């Protein structure tokens, strides 16, 4: 007869292992908010609570570049309002983008494969927001930044600042914020 690898009783075991692996990958990539590389329209006047994939495409576009182990935003000023954060994984490892702050809790993209993109639309209010990669260990390696929305103290339009080693003073596009 055939070798043990070619006998029919090993096929169900392989199928079972493959199914478990696929379920684990799907669970790791799940998120509270779906992502999309294409945009869809949401109704005008969506409330701050409608910060899900149904609002994708609405709001001021913010391009976010993610690689090992940096998050770079294409803007540093954030007045209150709706924003669509478009995350581009330019790295060699999977990344994702999550936003936490006033009125927003764990809104983000699914895990993005290298070279892929995803988006999340949120309504930012006055206050401080944390933007980070939730993939295991990435936040502690520097994929964590903070932005301030609206007036801080006596005026100002809000700026982005980093808790990491990079500085945003005197820099222009392409800097880590």
Please sum up the structure shown.
By secondary structure, the protein is mainly beta.
Topology (elements, then pairings):
Layout: H1 11-28, E1 60-67, E2 70-73, E3 81-89, E4 98-101, E5 104-108, E6 117-124, E7 127-132, E8 144-149, E9 160-162
Strand arrangement, major sheet: 5-4-7-8-9
- The portion of residues assigned to helices is 10-25%
Shape: globular
Architecture of one domain in CATH?
Sandwich
Characterization of this structure:
By secondary structure, this protein is mainly beta. The chain has a domain at 53-162: Cupredoxins -  blue copper proteins (Immunoglobulin-like). Helix content is 10%, strand content 30%. It has one helix and nine strands. It has one helix at residues 11-28; strands spanning 60-67, 70-73, 81-89, 98-101, 104-108, 117-124, 127-132, 144-149, 160-162. β4 and β5 form a beta hairpin. The longest helix has 18 residues, at 11-28. The radius of gyration is 20 Å and the shape is globular. Residues 20-56 and 154-177 have low confidence and may be disordered.
Characteristics:
mainly beta; 10% helix; single chain
């Amino acid at each position: 007869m055939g070798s043990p690898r070619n006998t029919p009783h090993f096929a169900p075991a392989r199928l079972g292992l493959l199914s478990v692996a696929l379920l684990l990958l799907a669970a790791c990539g799940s998120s509270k908010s779906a992502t999309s590389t294409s945009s869809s329209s949401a109704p005008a006047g969506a409330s701050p609570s409608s910060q899900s994939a149904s609002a994708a495409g609405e709001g001021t576009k913010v391009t976010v570049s993610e690689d090992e182990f940096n998050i770079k935003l294409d803007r540093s000023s954030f007045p209150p309002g709706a924003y669509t954060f478009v995350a581009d994984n330019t790295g060699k490892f999977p990344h994702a983008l999550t936003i936490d702050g006033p009125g927003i809790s764990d809104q983000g993209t699914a895990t993005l494969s290298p070279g892929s993109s995803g988006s999340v639309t949120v309504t930012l209010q006055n206050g401080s927001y944390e933007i980070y990669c939730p993939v295991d260990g990435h936040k502690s390696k520097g994929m964590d930044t903070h932005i301030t929305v609206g007036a801080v103290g006596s005026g100002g339009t809000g700026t982005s600042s980093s808790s990491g080693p990079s500085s945003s003073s005197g820099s222009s596009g392409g800097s880590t914020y």
